[in-house]
């Protein structure tokens, strides 16, 4: 350790720097995104999600090769054989109830608790990152992961579908047929819908993550919450509660496959998710800003 | 430290604000301008004069008929007549959202009804004399050609499953036709439906033995189009059946919507309509599903007004229906048959193969069954 | 210290922290002069880290006031933290990032740090702690000492007015310890105040100008090292095989001595030691004279008068008892 003065300006200039106006702080968001997408864990999660459309497409391909025309599965799976672009939608339908919440639970549950567990939280806070700013950046990065996850499933589905099945005009739920460019627009809309759908769960995960220093606990709790909400949503006795469950509109992206597009579930979903983000975001702020960082 | 509490202020305020918005927004939407007072007569006239030629609308139907709650999705399982019955039943229970598009400007007779199921859709498309039924789950399409001269503008022809979900205007027209001296008609306070101010036309049956307490029809103040129908059973405060527009626009929908070509991979059946438009299909949805259509027997109506009872002969070959677990779940065995009971309609299926249905008590049905002679003995057996 | 600045870099008043029923920091009145190297001394569990967490706004005080660099905490925290560098309870880094990537991340979190000079500042900080060769290595491949150095480098990323180092020499080899000491001295040359906590007296003694001593959450002494030495009790230390005889002689002179078991050293010297406080009216040479006159074989005699160690031991207790 050289005691030389190299590279260290005088304290006076340090004080001047402190007096200067702070930057917007986008570089911390960029750093957070780099950190998230550089982690091997993130890549494993995304690769696992990408594997689901591949598995679905290969399974359907093999089973139809053996017994052509005896499609006794749900009509949705049948669609795949006629149009590879449908693999994306089928894969999203399969991923939405469990696999996406699992992946989002891991990322959202890790946001604060992961930093606490690694001992980096205290250094971020004295760097300094304001606690609310840290929550906002963490939330934004987690939402970026949600987007990446849905886009990866959609893209992997479209690619494998194009590789294994014919690609052509897409039949909508209404029985109308649309061309390939239009269907790509719809696929992107669906990816957007699913990303928005996951915002509420992300906010819940963020809040849970402020409650503990054990990231695994926060991840598990977030996933459990998503499963409990779906179970409640399937109990007809609780139908008064259903419109308020963040999972209620999760499969509503089917409305984007109607002719004309039904946007009401999109907007209901977006408003519901916004409410969850506001409620759990403010809970996370309340908890995190009043918490002693002892990790 | 006292400051710690201040950090939780947003967490306390935000839910309150959201709850406020959730409560205030619908109230603000309801606070539409009040309508000029009208008598029941005038409101009926407004309905009669209604001349809506084009609309794009979404409506929601909610039934709470007191049937056992079936987990969602059961309706689609099974096969054959059970599936048919279950599917018809499914439309009568729970909640459904549907969209309707209609355009009869320039003499066109275009209509499209879409029942928005989860991950599926059932469509009825009428374009002139062509009628298509499409079911995305089964991937089937049925085509029929209407007789040239048809005045079935408001009631969809053999619309199968999808038609059992009636649009508010269709249902209101049907109910208004039944307005006779047996009913008191009053106008309640103004309502707001789908963001529009509406008169509340309340029909109260005077007959003592009907199950129906009141039928309220919201009539759009400017167009006279019925916007919602709510049926409350006698002695209950909660509606048993509601169908209401949630959004409505009177712009002409895109013409593309009415041009239907069955997509590739769909099983298409051509259905020939009986020469005379089968009237009983209008009575479908009373729980008997396709059996009614199969039977050549005409239904017999006894009684009048709200307490009418429909009698139908379906034959004794009911094993397909009675053997199903769904049947056992829904029917209550009684002396001489079994009863399918809802808060608005009762259906008695006798062991000798007759069906009695009506908005009356099960006792009244049994009495009707006992009174009616076994006129046309079933051909089978 | 140049012309004792009236200003204090850190000032606490009646600072108290309780965890449940346990009072971990009790009515602490710290006064850290600007430009000093301030040693914060205390055995494990005496509340040093907890105090540092409160100074940095990580934990809130149960009661009392904190001023850092003249600003009231926690209200002025956002203005204070950019001027403070810190190592808190050991290093904390992302194991899957390299040393320099870790520093870049922490630097990008600071909205006052210039992105343009970031890479250069990171390289300089790594050089100052001798980690240039390991800059590109993943932190999971670092030894504890290397991580500790990286933690110090983080505190040096931008010029700071105050640097807080919590047990900075933990895990360092003797060479590293020496380097840290050197580094801390060099920091003060630029006018930075350094607040160093340690449970090792020797360390504090060698690099600090001021010190405070903690014991079970209480501040038991505070001041410049000279001031502290003066408050210390002078003692004599006698090494002799004739312990019993010596005890009698010392008692005659009015000294109450404790006998310490001989230090185990491979059987070489197995003489017990006697330690006794030296009253002011008795001169050291007087004692030796009396001992020799009475036939005590004096094999070693020291007046361990003003060592801080004695003070430390006296103030914090001896042995391995960790404060509860
Ligand atoms: N998170 C915590 N919860 C409860 N007690 C704690 C916590 N952290 C530290 N303590 C207690 O506070 C006391 C002081 O700890 P600390 O400040 O870490 O001591 P030091 O840094 O001087 O070794 C110890 O008795 C320890 O048990
Ligand atoms: Mg410590």
Offer a few descriptive terms.
heterotrimer; A: 295 residues; mainly alpha; two-stranded antiparallel sheet; 12 helices; globular; B: 381 residues; alpha+beta; outer membrane lipoprotein receptor (LolB), chain A; TATA-Binding Protein; 2 domains; 13-stranded mixed β-sheet; disordered C terminus; binds adenosine-5'-diphosphate; binds magnesium ion
Question: Could you characterize what this model shows?
Answer:
The complex is a heterotrimer of chains A (295), B (381) and C (324). Chain A is built from twelve helices and two strands. By secondary structure, chain A is mainly α. Chain A has a two-stranded antiparallel sheet with strand order 1-2. In chain A, α2 packs across α8. Chain A is globular. Chain A starts with 10 loop residues before the first helix and ends in a 6-residue tail after the last helix. The N terminus of chain A is likely disordered. Chain B has 381 residues and is an alpha+beta fold. Chain B folds into two domains: 268 residues, Lipoprotein localisation LolA/LolB/LppX (outer membrane lipoprotein receptor (LolB), chain A); 82 residues, 2-Layer Sandwich (TATA-Binding Protein). Chain B contains ten helices and 19 strands. Chain B is globular, with a radius of gyration of 23 Å. Chain C has 324 residues and is an alpha/beta fold. Chain C folds into two domains: 219 residues, P-loop containing nucleotide triphosphate hydrolases (Rossmann fold), CATH 3.40.50; 71 residues, Alpha-Beta Plaits (2-Layer Sandwich). In chain C, the strands form three sheets. In chain C, strands 7-8-9-4-10-11 form a six-stranded mixed sheet, with helices on both faces. In chain C, strands 1, 2, 3, 5 and 6 form a five-stranded antiparallel sheet that branches. A four-stranded antiparallel sheet of chain C has the order 13-14-12-15, covered by helices on one side. Chain C is elongated. Chains in contact: A-B, A-C, B-C. The complex binds adenosine-5'-diphosphate and magnesium ion. Magnesium ion binds next to α1 of chain C. The site of magnesium ion has 5 residues of chain C, from α1.
């Amino acid at each position: 350790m050289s005691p030389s003065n190299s590279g260290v300006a005088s304290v006076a200039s340090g004080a001047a720097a402190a007096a200067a106006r702070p930057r917007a702080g986008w570089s911390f968001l960029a750093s957070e995104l780099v950190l998230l997408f550089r982690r091997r864990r993130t890549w494993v999660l995304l690769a696992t999600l990408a594997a689901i459309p591949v598995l679905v497409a290969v399974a359907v391909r093999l089973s139809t090769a053996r017994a052509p025309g005896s499609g006794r599965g749900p009509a949705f799976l049948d669609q795949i054989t006629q149009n590879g672009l449908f693999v994306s939608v089928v894969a999203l339908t399969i991923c939405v109830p469990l696999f996406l919440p699992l992946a989002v639970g891991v990322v959202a549950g890790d946001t604060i608790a992961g930093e606490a567990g690694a001992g980096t939280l205290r250094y971020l806070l004295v760097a300094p990152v304001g606690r609310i700013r840290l929550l906002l950046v963490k939330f934004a990065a987690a939402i970026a992961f949600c987007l990446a996850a849905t886009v990866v499933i959609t893209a992997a589905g479209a690619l494998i579908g194009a590789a294994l099945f014919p690609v052509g005009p897409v039949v909508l739920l209404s029985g109308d047929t649309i061309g390939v460019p239009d269907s790509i627009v719809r696929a992107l809309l669906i990816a957007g819908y699913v990303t928005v759908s996951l915002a509420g769960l992300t906010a819940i995960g963020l809040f849970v993550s402020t409650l503990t220093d054990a990231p695994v606990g926060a991840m598990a709790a977030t996933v459990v919450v998503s499963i409990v909400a779906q179970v409640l949503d399937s109990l007809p006795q609780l139908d008064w509660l259903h419109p308020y469950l963040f999972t209620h509109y999760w499969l509503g992206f089917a409305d984007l496959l109607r002719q004309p597009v039904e946007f009401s579930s999109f907007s209901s979903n977006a408003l519901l998710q916004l409410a969850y983000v506001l409620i759990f975001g403010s809970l996370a702020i309340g908890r995190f800003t009043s918490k002693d960082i002892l990790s | 430290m006292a400051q710690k509490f201040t950090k939780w202020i947003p967490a306390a305020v935000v839910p309150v604000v959201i709850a406020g918005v959730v409560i205030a927004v619908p109230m603000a939407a309801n606070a539409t301008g009040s309508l000029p007072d009208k008598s029941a007569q005038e409101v009926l006239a407004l309905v009669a004069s209604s001349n809506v030629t084009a609309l794009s609308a979404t409506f929601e139907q909610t039934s709470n008929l007191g049937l056992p709650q079936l987990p969602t999705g059961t309706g689609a399982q099974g096969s054959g007549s059970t599936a048919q019955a279950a599917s018809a039943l499914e439309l009568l229970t729970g909640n459904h959202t549907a969209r309707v598009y209609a355009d009869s400007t320039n003499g066109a007779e275009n209509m499209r009804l879409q029942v928005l199921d989860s991950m599926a859709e059932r469509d009825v498309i009428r374009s002139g004399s062509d009628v298509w039924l499409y079911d995305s789950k089964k991937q089937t399409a049925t085509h029929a050609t209407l007789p040239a001269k048809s005045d079935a503008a408001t009631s969809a022809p053999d619309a199968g499953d999808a038609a059992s979900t009636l649009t508010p205007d269709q249902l209101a027209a049907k109910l208004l036709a039944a307005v006779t001296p047996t009913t008191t008609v009053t106008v309640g306070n103004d309502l707001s439906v789908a963001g529009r101010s509406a008169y509340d036309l309340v029909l109260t049956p005077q007959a003592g033995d009907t199950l129906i307490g009141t039928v309220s029809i919201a009539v759009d103040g400017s167009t006279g189009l019925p916007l919602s129908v709510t049926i409350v059973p006698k002695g209950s405060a909660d509606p048993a059946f509601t169908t209401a527009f949630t959004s409505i626009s009177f712009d002409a929908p895109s013409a593309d919507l009415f041009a239907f070509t069955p997509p590739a991979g769909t099983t298409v059946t051509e259905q020939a309509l009986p020469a005379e438009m089968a009237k009983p299909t209008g009575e479908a949805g009373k729980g008997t599903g396709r059996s009614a259509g199969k039977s050549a027997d005409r239904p017999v109506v006894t009684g009048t007004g709200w307490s009418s009872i429909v009698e139908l002969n379906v034959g004794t070959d009911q094993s397909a229906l009675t053997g199903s677990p769904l049947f056992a779940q829904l029917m209550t065995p009684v002396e001489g048959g079994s009863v399918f009971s809802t808060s608005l309609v009762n259906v008695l299926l006798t062991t000798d193969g007759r069906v009695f249905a009506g908005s009356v008590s099960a006792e009244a049905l049994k009495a009707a069954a006992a009174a009616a002679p076994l006129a046309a003995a079933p051909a089978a057996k | 210290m140049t012309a004792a600045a009236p200003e204090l870099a850190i000032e606490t008043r009646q600072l108290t922290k309780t965890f449940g029923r346990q009072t971990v920091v009790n009515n602490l009145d710290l006064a850290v002069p600007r430009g000093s190297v301030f040693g914060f001394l205390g055995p494990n569990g005496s509340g040093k880290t907890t105090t540092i967490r409160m100074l940095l706004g990580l934990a809130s005080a149960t009661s009392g006031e904190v001023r850092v660099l003249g600003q009231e905490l926690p209200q002025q925290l956002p203005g204070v933290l950019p001027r403070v560098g810190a190592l808190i309870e050991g290093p904390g880094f992302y194991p899957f990032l390299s040393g320099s990537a870790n520093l870049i991340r922490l630097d990008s979190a600071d909205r006052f740090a210039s992105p343009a000079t970031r890479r250069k500042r990171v390289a300089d900080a790594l050089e100052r702690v001798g980690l240039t060769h390991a800059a590109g290595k993943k932190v999971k491949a670092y030894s504890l000492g290397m991580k500790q150095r990286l933690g110090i480098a983080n505190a040096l990323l931008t010029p700071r007015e105050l640097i807080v180092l919590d047990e900075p020499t933990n895990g360092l080899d003797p060479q590293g310890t020496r380097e840290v000491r050197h580094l801390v001295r060099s920091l003060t040359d630029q006018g930075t105040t350094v607040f160093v906590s340690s449970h090792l007296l020797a360390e504090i003694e060698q690099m600090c100008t001021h010190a405070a001593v903690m014991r079970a959450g209480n501040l038991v002494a505070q001041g410049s090292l000279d001031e502290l030495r003066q408050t210390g009790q002078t003692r004599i230390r006698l090494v002799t095989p004739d312990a019993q005889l010596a005890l009698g002689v010392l008692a005659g002179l009015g000294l109450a001595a404790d006998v310490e078991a001989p230090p185990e050293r491979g059987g070489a010297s197995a003489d017990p030691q006697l330690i006794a406080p030296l009253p002011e009216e008795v001169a050291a040479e007087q004692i030796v004279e009396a001992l020799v006159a009475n036939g005590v074989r004096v094999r070693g005699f020291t007046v361990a008068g003003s060592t801080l160690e004695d003070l430390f031991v006296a103030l914090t207790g001896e042995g391995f008892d960790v404060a509860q």
